[in-house]
Design goal:
12 strands, Rossmann fold, Cobalt-precorrin-4 Transmethylase, domain 1, 275 residues, 39% helix
Length: 275
């Protein structure tokens, strides 16, 4: 069986940056999970003493605090700034962009529409910068019953699919008089999704490696399933099953933006020993 990696996969700029910050900030604590990958978080804890706090209420005697890649809410950031702690901001610059847009556009009187998952930490952070009405939606159907003004600004969670973002934008064009559209989907996300789709079209089985709580990884799984019914999401090599590869000729592999190369190599090695 041939194993083929997607042309684009794995660590994005924001994740690489955050990990480098954590490695250079030993014996610190992150506010929330630095990235959505348990294996890498464990490595940072064991090797560099970087522990994870669920939220700011768990802060005790930590002297150095790292803001996670997905960012935090504006209120939490204000609280942290008031504490006598060294604060290191690992928020991805591409996540800061929609935060800034939401703050600016809402201050100019626009209702804000965020295309994303309302429970995702990135979206919670972006939403907190709105000064007026703000709505979080995942599809067009959710827009139909909302009372939205004639001035609307649209942004997206950075890891969503451009096709779905476009559908929401097209609907808003027909229902509002003034619409400002900001495509805040990360380019690396788009490239990884395109590469996954291209590989899934010719693969007999697709392995998607990444955190099961990772938005961009789950998007890669959904995209792969559109073209390859035998698509599986795993966090590490121990979750692989031999029967997935029986009578298969091409195994495609892709990985989420928070998946380090060392995990991917372990998965490839394990598949080679199984087939």
């Amino acid at each position: 069986m041939k194993i083929e990696l997607a042309k684009k996969y794995g660590f994005c700029f924001g994740v690489k940056r955050a990990i480098k910050i954590a490695e250079n900030t030993e014996n610190s604590a992150t506010i929330g999970e630095l990235i959505h990958n348990n294996e890498e978080i464990d490595r940072l804890h064991k090797k560099f003493g970087v522990k994870t706090l669920n939220d700011i209420s768990e802060i005790t005697d930590e002297k150095r605090l790292i803001i996670r890649t997905h960012g935090i809410t504006k209120d939490d950031l204000d609280v942290l700034k008031s504490k006598n702690k060294e604060l290191i901001d690992a928020t991805c610059p591409f996540v800061k962009k929609p935060q800034q847009i939401v703050e600016k556009m809402s201050s100019e009187g626009y209702d804000i529409i965020i295309f994303g998952d309302k429970n995702h930490p990135e979206v919670k952070g972006v939403k907190s910068y709105a000064k007026g009405k703000v709505f979080v939606v995942l599809d067009v159907s959710e827009l139909k019953n909302l009372k939205i003004s004639n001035k609307v600004a649209l942004v997206s969670q950075t890891t969503k699919r451009i096709e779905n973002f476009t559908k929401i934008a097209e609907f808003l064009m027909t229902t509002t008089k003034e619409l400002r559209i900001f495509n805040t989907i990360c380019n690396a996300t788009f490239q990884n999704q395109e590469a996954a789709a291209k590989l899934a079209k010719k693969a007999d089985v697709m392995i998607i490696i990444g955190g099961k709580n990772s938005s961009n990884t789950k998007q890669l799984l959904l995209i792969s399933q559109n073209f390859c019914k035998n698509s599986y999401l795993i966090e590490n090599e121990n979750e692989l099953k031999k029967e997935w590869f029986l009578n298969k000729e091409i195994c495609g592999i892709t990985a989420g933006a928070s998946t380090p190369e060392w995990i991917i190599k372990k998965v490839v090695k394990k598949i080679n020993t199984m087939c």
